[in-house]
Structures are given as structure tokens and as C-alpha cells.
Amino acid sequence: MPEPLATLPLQYIRSIGDQLQRMGIDVAAWLAESGMSLAWLNSARSTVDLSQFNRLVVQSVAISGEPAIGLLVGERLLASSHGLLGYAASSSGTLRQAIGVFERFVRLRAPFLTVSLAERAGQARVIIEETLPLGAAQHSVLEAVVLSVKNMLDSISLGACRVVRVAFPFAAPNYKLLARQMFGCDVAYGQTWAGIVLPANVLDVPLRMADAQAFEQAAAFCQRELDKLRANESMAARVRRLLLEKQNGFPSLQVTARLCHLTPRTLHRKLLAEGTSYRALIEAVRYQLAVEHMRAGHFSIEEIAYMLGYTDLANFRRAFKRWAKVPPSVYRRMRSAR
Questions:
Q1: Looking at the predicted structure, is the pLDDT value of residue 69 above 50?
Q2: Domain annotation for the chain: domains and CATH numbers
Q3: What Rg do the C-alpha atoms of the chain give, in angstroms?
Q4: What's the confidence (pLDDT) of residue 136?
């Protein structure tokens, strides 16, 4: 399995730990189940990769017996929990500008997610998508993220945001009434997307908490941090990230080169110098996504093949066997037996 693409700040793990502590759960025991310690959690230098993060989230549900822990954590995630990204959003002049902050800089806090705004028929959707499948942690993570974003938009608009509905791509849980109470609006399950629906006419209403100078300073800092991340990335890592962001239809070499502000020849040469190629990276990303989808268990093998761009299921089966040394059906049975 390829190595994780990015690490996350520990703030969100600490927030889960705080919630567990309020519930009387031994935080050290929770961490120990995933090979972590209190010293690691409290270290200013520590980070967590996506697989560790997912493991800790899943274990928090198991050790607490609380399936709605994502909502409980999300309710307590304030703007300050998101660092400079949260500060920039809180200082925004309009809701559109605040949502734009998350679109541009969410990678600084949650590199496995993207945020986008879509407007249609008088409604606006704030869409939150996984760039990597979150597996068994999906429910808790999406509930925490969507509730945190919804509460932040409510807060900075002083209640004028008027979210009318939130959506989740999974079946209704047994705590759906609690979710309805905590969101304060309709909660739609079994959707094809996750996020928030609000009236489009509130997007450009000036916000009373706006601070143009504070916004510019915070946004500039976020941009510098994002530029540092990009500067330290290899060309292969940049291409892998682009492919993951466009996973439901991989861009061509020409399009990818354009997105990287390079010519196709220069991109090919840079990848070759790093010992790889565009085709090899697509193969690696397809394998990574195939395995993650297998682990998540939300889709059939046929659906996974289609999502990864295979129009012929036999071609996907051959490719997967080449990657994992076993057919996808055997791999899924092996995972289920563990």
C-alpha cells in the first residue's frame, strides 16, 4: 500500500481526547490501542497520518460505545480549532468569502478532504468530498466536519446563514433524531454527497463581524503555508494529489501539465528524473483508491472498477491482480475474514 500523502495537525485528535475524557474514558487506554501515548498526544512536534487518524477515530467509537461521537466532537470544534484557516473564515466579509477560505485552504487542516461551492435554482451547496476513502471512520469524520462548518457559518453570520438542510452519503443512523436536534435543520441521509444547503441569496450579504485587515493577514499567512507545502512536494507528489482530487475521472497528461503550469514535455521530464511516469502514478493512485474502497466496503467490485475509469470489469480484475497478487474478490474475502 502506498505511503500516506500528508499528515494532519493533532488538534482534532486532542478534541476527540477531550470528549472522551468528559465521558469518563481513559484517554491513555484509547491511545494505546493504536500504539500512541499521552506524551505523543501532548507533543508540539507530533503529527498524525490518515491511517493513524482513521484508526483513532474508529477506536474512539469502540471504547466509548458512543456511535454519535463525531457529532459530539464537531459541536465543540470552534473557529479557533481550525487555526488560521478558522480565523480567516471568521473575519470574512461574506459567507461566500468564508466558504472560499475553506475551498482554498482546507488542505492545511484536512488534506483528505475538499470543499466546493455549487449554486443552482436559488440554493447553494457547500460540498465536502473525500479525496481518500475514510473507511469505517467516514460517518464520524463527516459528521464532525459538516457540523463544525455549519456552526461556524451560523456563528459568523450571527444566525443569518439559515442552513436548510445537511446531507450525508450513508444510511440514517439510530441516532438520527439527535443529529436533527444538533444540526437544527433537516438531515438527509443516503445522498450522493455530504455537506450543507443554504439559500443562495445569503452568500453575498455583508457580515457584521467582517474585518478586512484581519482577513487579508490570515489569508496571506494561509497562502504562505500552502505555498510551503507545495514547494516541499516532489513533482510526483503534486501529480498524485491532483489525481486524487480528480479521482472520478483522471485528467490527461496534457491537462495535468497545465494544472501544474508546465508543458507536457517538462512534466514528463521531471517525473522521469524522479524515477516515475504519469502512467505509473495513475496506476499507483488507482491501486490506492481500489484498496481503500475495498476496505471501506461501501461499493461493489463493479462500482469500484467504474469509479476508477475501467469500462471493462475484466481489465480492472487483471490490473488488481497485478497490483495485489490476488483477484479483487479474493482480496475482499481476505479482508472480511480478518
A1: yes
A2: 7-202 (3.90.1520), 233-337 (1.10.10.60)
A3: 21
A4: 86
